[in-house]
Amino acid sequence: MSRTATEIATQPACWRRAAESAAGFDGLPRPGERVAVTGCGTSWFMAIAYAALREAAGQGETDAFASSEFPVGRTYDRVVAITRSGTTTEVLELLARLRGTVRTVALTADDKTPVMDVADEVAVLDWADEESVVQTRFATTALAFLRAGLGDVPGVKSVADAAVDAESAVTEPLPDAVLAAEQWTFLGRGWTYGLALEAGLKMREAAGAWTEAYPAMEYRHGPISITAPGRVAWVFGAPPEGLAADVSAVGGTLVANEAADPLADLVRAQRLAVALAESRGFDPDRPRNLSRSVILP
């Protein structure tokens, strides 16, 4: 078993610990604050998911930006940065620019990195750190940590219940049609759109696969044109009405695990990425052209 696969399997326990840690951390956004969430790559996609969750919880306007595209002149009460390594150049530069103008909090996996010195408060989730280059458990654990801090979100399970679903997701067989497909399109609505983006990225990073991701309602506005036999449309959460029939009509395969928490369903997509990488002779622990952190000169 690859190191990546081993780390994927630990996520239920990581999420439970995240929920416990969030209860004792005082730096999370308060209800009513205007908040921005930022990161790069996978961390940005988790930021997108959290922003939508926080607004769904009625806790205040929440934006998400890639750190390189952050509108520094815009006014916020708090900025949350997600950075597994604590060394990503764009995140560090942004936090340094914001220092003294807005309260900042960072989520990281390493307390011996520069982010400790540029954020006002830091939540260190070192027990969710990874040896793998490709992020899996740290990203989902960071989202679980932030999600737990929101309390009850209408229509969304608790982190504890999501962890129960994840226990099934790390062991249940993946559908043959998904494993044999040549192309995968990931779809989501609201907070699960960020998960769809992340699922597509995992497949590209680990296996060099042809994947795309869209808001679910946008799928019929063009992306459905590539759907055909041997191609999958994977929906996080409940599919929009009529989508299953539309996918079937053009020969595609629809995948939707409506009973499972969407974050647990992301675990299945992570497992698919590893399985596909191994079937193509790639090493999921050492993806092509990637490093653990992007550190610019």
Structure description:
The chain has 297 residues and is of the alpha/beta class. The protein is 40% helix and 15% strand. It is built from 11 helices and 9 strands. The strands form 2 sheets. The protein has a 5-stranded parallel β-sheet with strand order 2-1-3-4-5, with helices on both faces. The protein has a 4-stranded parallel β-sheet with strand order 7-6-8-9, sandwiched between helices. It is globular.
Question: What is the structure about, briefly put?
Answer:
The protein has eleven helices and nine strands. The chain has a five-stranded parallel beta sheet with strand order 2-1-3-4-5, sandwiched between helices. It has a four-stranded parallel beta sheet with strand order 7-6-8-9, sandwiched between helices. With 297 residues, it is of the alpha/beta class.
Keywords:
alpha/beta; 297 residues; single chain; four-stranded parallel sheet; globular; 9 strands; 11 helices
Low-confidence stretches: none
| Major β-sheet annotation | 5 strands, parallel
User: Strand share of the residues?
Assistant: 15-25%
Shape: globular
- Summing up helix and strand content along with how strands pair, one would put the structural category as alpha/beta
Number of helices: 11
From the structure provided, what is the oligomeric state, counting identical versus distinct chains?
A: single chain
Strands side by side in the biggest sheet = 2-1-3-4-5
Radius of gyration, whole Å:
18 Å
